[in-house]
Amino acid sequence: LSPGAKMGCFTFIKVMMILFNLAIFLSGGTLLGVGIWVKVDGESFLKIFGTLSSSILQVVNVAYLLIVIGAILLVIGFLGCYGAQKESKCLLMMFFSVVLIIFIAEVAAAVVALVFTGLAETLLTGLVTPLLKEKYGADEAFTQIWNVTMTEVHCCGLNNYTDFNNSYFYDRHQGYPRQCCDMQEPCNSTMAAEMAVQGCFKQILEEIRTNAGVAGGVAAGIAALEIAAMAVSMYLYCRLDEK
């Protein structure tokens, strides 16, 4: 390519890099703002998004999650946008490094999720089952979370209905949650065994496997964007030596 064509290509990629990372920066700012709003005024969030959001807020601290994701996107967007605008090799290298770290972390998480599913089930059983026995029916927030989960996912306990044996709920009601008997009451051991409702871990795992194509497509798309971003940042970084 002629020097003019090379310069035109460099300018085009630089502008695309700026616009792309500006979008990331604005998205990060939005998520950060929503996270701060949820943290400061959670009641308004619940009114807007309904009762299910209450359970979600109790399972995952949405405010902190949004704040962390928003902050990461802000940093990435700033480094990419400002680095391209100022043609700063230092900022471009920092952008490349941050995206590379995130990419490696995502790949590692995917590998762990695929390889250690059985280990995850064992760990969850050891951690969650005692909580089910102790808190289900006694702690209102904990009970609501599990009721919503078991109803929406059509599951019972973490593994199956036996998770509620010798539990606070069983001792008080002499039976199992109605979700363990396909919403029929009273739910005794005979009916629960006949219904054989699967545990929530297995059901959620099955849902993930059923939608693996969609999840894989989204993950592949994100990975492709990250690789493209790293490639573009390295292109700009290397081209700066020639200017």
TrEMBL record:
Gene3D superfamilies, alphabetized: Tetraspanin
Assembly, per entry: Interacts with SLC19A2. Interacts with NTRK1/TRKA.
Family: Belongs to the tetraspanin (TM4SF) family.
The protein's name in its UniProt record: Tetraspanin
Membrane topology field: Multi-pass membrane protein
Disulfide feature: 155-200, 156-181
GO CC annotations on file: lysosomal membrane; plasma membrane
Organism annotation: Pheucticus melanocephalus
The organism's place on the tree of life at top rank: Eukaryota
Subcellular location: Lysosome membrane; Membrane
Record field: transmembrane: 12-38, 58-79, 91-116, 214-238
